[in-house]
Amino acid sequence: MAVFTSVSLDDLGPWMTQFPLGKALAIKGIASGIENSNFFITTEAGEYVLTIFENLDFEQLPFYLKLMRHLADRGVLVPAPIANAQGELVVALHGKPAAIVSKLDGSSQMAPQPQHCAGVGTMLARMHIAARDFSIQQPNLRGLDWWRVTAPVVLPFLSDSNQQLLRDEMQYQEAFASSAEYAAFPRGPVHADLFRNNVMFDGERLTGFFDFYFAGCDTWLFDVAVTVNDWCIDLDSGALDLTRVDAMLQAYQAVRPFSDEEHRGWQAMLRAAALRFWLSRLYDYHLPRDAEMLTPHDPGHFERILRLRTTIAAPELP
Ligand SMILES: Nc1ncnc2c1ncn2[C@@H]1O[C@H](COP(=O)(O)OP(=O)(O)O)[C@@H](O)[C@H]1O
Ligand SMILES: N[C@@H](CCOP(=O)(O)O)C(=O)O
């Protein structure tokens, strides 16, 4: 990410005394990511990640942190949130909500092979199943309601042909969201941003999913579509790489088979997933927030993906 809120070692020292991690020894801002302020911190107890939440408030955050705890307790590989002496997972730092989680081993696999995609498919299906009995409800805050608000905000910045694309897709997604297929999709807590940069691998061994701060209750198939649109494509064109798509979907369905309605709605969800990230990238690009280190994501990438998903038939779900 960017660092929107600066934290020095002097700031951190007194704040850290409430956590059972010993003294803070070092802090380093993390340049990747775009939503929150993230830091690697070294303490006497080891390496952790400190996140200061820039857009989420104290009421919303227990959903994410307790979901991570819930998943970890059921064997899904995710960072463990650290509670302070009062048992709180979210504590104010510089007036904003902040949390400490364990640091995952490994690094992101930015050029994934079919075996990486299969590992992600298996863990994603396990995550969906494991989260079924999670008791806190929170909608996907980047779902259809947010698209309705955001589309008119970004529209004036777009070329005529992109305005047309956005209007047409909004209309299509509104109609699909009212369909019987969509109503029948299984749903529950989903990650909703499971891009390559949010998964760690040690070689070919998946060590964890992280960055749950876009998670929310939505359809499982939307989560699968978000994941396929990032992991299983030719990065230059956005076209689906059929070998990687097949590896991910076969692995997913071996744990959680797809329903008939999901088979019929697959292409619509690939489009929805492309639209969601085109919109957020457009918003961040044209209406940026201040940041010390900010690497904007290219909206054109998801415009290309959306155009392809609206014109080329995707392979059927297994
Ligand atoms: N639990 C973690 N373990 C290891 N690295 C992490 C962890 N959380 C975040 N990171 C690192 O921080 C970077 C930015 O985190 P991310 O959650 O993607 O930021 P943002 O929420 O701002 O998009 C990641 O790419 C990763 O390198
Ligand atoms: N994955 C999204 C942006 C969210 O950033 P992240 O670093 O939290 O994954 C995109 O690529 O647009």
From TrEMBL:
Q: Which UniProt keywords apply?
A: Amino-acid biosynthesis, ATP-binding, Kinase, Nucleotide-binding, Threonine biosynthesis, Transferase
Pfam families per record: APH (PF01636)
Presence of keyword ATP-binding: yes
Pathway(s) of this molecule = Amino-acid biosynthesis; L-threonine biosynthesis; L-threonine from L-aspartate: step 4/5
Q: Which GO terms describe its biological process?
A: threonine biosynthetic process
Say which enzyme class the record assigns.
transferase
In terms of superkingdom, the source organism counts as Bacteria
Q: Which family does it belong to?
A: Belongs to the pseudomonas-type ThrB family.
Listed name of the protein: Homoserine kinase
Gene name linked to the record: thrB
